Fold these 2 entries.
Entry 1:
Amino acid sequence: EVHLVESGGGLVQPGGSLRLSCAASGFSFSSYDMHWVRQTTGKGLEWVSVIGKAADTSYSGSVNGRFVISRENAKNSLFLQMNSLRAGDTAIYYCARGLGDSSMDVWGQGTTVTVSS
Amino acid sequence: SFDLTQPPSVSVSPGQTASITCSGDKLGDKYVCWYQQKPGQSPVLVIYQDDKRPSGIPERFSGSNSGNTATLTISGTQAMDEADYYCQAWDSSTGVVFGGGTKLTVL
C-alpha cells in the first residue's frame, strides 16, 4: 500500500529552525516528484515546495530563501528544512506525491508546526 | 502572480448536480486538478488533467476546463460528498497554485 508519513513538527520560537521528514513506502520513491503543502487551521491549502526526480527544486515566494527541500532516495525520504520561521508559517504541513503534471495523488496525514514565543 | 478564484460555498440537494467553478486567466491553457477534503482529513485527488478520475473515485465526479474557467461537477450528489473542494493548477511564474476552496453543503 502506498503510504506517506510526516514527522518533525512541533513548537518553535520565531526565528528558529525545524526539519520535517516524510517517509514513503509502497512505491518507487525515486520515480516521483514530491511536494510539501501547508494548511493553516480552518484555512485553505498553500503550496510550499517541490523537488523533482532529478532533485530540481522550486519554492513558493513566501518561503523562498528560508526553506530548503531535499530528498534521499536510498531511504525513501523527503525533507523540508525550515529556517527563520515566522508566526505565519504556523500550519499543518503535508507531503504529497506528484504526478508530473503538478497534481498530487497521495498525501500524508500531516505534521503540525507552531511558531510562537 | 497567478490566482485561482472559487466561490466560498455551494449548496446542493441530495441527488442533484453540484457544480463548483474555478477561474483564472487563460486557465484553459493549463491542466487543472481538484481535491476533496473532509474535516480532519488530508486532501484526496478526485480529478486530474482537467477531466481524468483517479482509480477509486466514483464516476459521479467529472471535470472540464475551457477559457478562463474550470468546473468540477458532481452528479447525483450524496451526503458523503459534503466537503471542501480545491482546484489547483501550475503556473510557470508562480508554481503550484491552489484556489481558495469551496465548501460544498448537501442539504
Note: The longest strand of chain B covers residues 83-91.
Entry 2:
Amino acid sequence: QVQLVESGGGVVQPGRSLRLSCAASGFNFIRYGFHWVRQAPGKGLEWVAVIWFDGDNENYADSVKGRFTISRDNSKNTLYLQMNSLRAEDTAVYYCARDPLTLPYFDYWGQGTLVTVSS
Amino acid sequence: QSALTQPASVSGSPGQSITISCTGTSSDVGTYNYVSWYQQYPGKAPKLIIYEVSNRPSGVSNRFSGSKSGNTASLTISGLQTEDEADYYCSSYTTTSTRVFGGGTKLTVL
C-alpha cells in the first residue's frame, strides 16, 4: 500500500536550517510529483512547494521562495525539503503529499512532522 | 497568492445536506477545472475526497459531491452523518503552476 513517512522535524532556533525527509513506498516513486504542505498550529493548510517526477522542475510559495529547496532522490524513493533562514512563522506540521501529475491534486499524504522555530 | 475563500464554519443535523463554498479568482478556480477537496480530522492528515471539481476517488462515499460555477466551487455532503464532522479544505491549481488552499471550513453535525 502507498506509504509516505516524514521525518526530520524538531525544535530549531530562528535563522537556522533544517532538512525534512519523506520516505515513500508501495508505488513507483519516479512516476509521481510531490509537494510539501504545511499547517501552522490551529490554522489551515498552506501549500509550500512542488517537484516534478524528474526533479528538473520545482515551484515554491512566495512565503518560502529563496529560503526553502525541494529535492528528490529517485534511487532512494525519498523527497526532501531543505529549510534555511527559518522564522517563527515557519512553525507548522509539514506534510508531504503525492501528485499524480496527470491531474493536479494530492492523492496521498504522509502523517506529518512538526517543525518548531523558537529561541 | 491569496487563499481561496471558504466559510469558517457550517453545521447541519444528521440526514440533512450541507454545502461548502470555495471562492477563488480567474487565476485559479475560474480558469481550471482542477479543484479538489480534502477532509481532515483533528490531529490527522488530510484525505482526498473530490478531485477535478466533481470526481470521487475510489472508496469515498457518494454522499460527497462537487461542482463549480465561475470562480466558485462547492462541496455538498448529503445525508449528513456524525462521522462527517471534520475540517474541509478546497484547493486549486493556479495560472502560475502553484497550488492554493482555502482557509478551511469546520463542519459540525448537530
Note: The two ends of chain B are 35 Å apart (CA to CA).
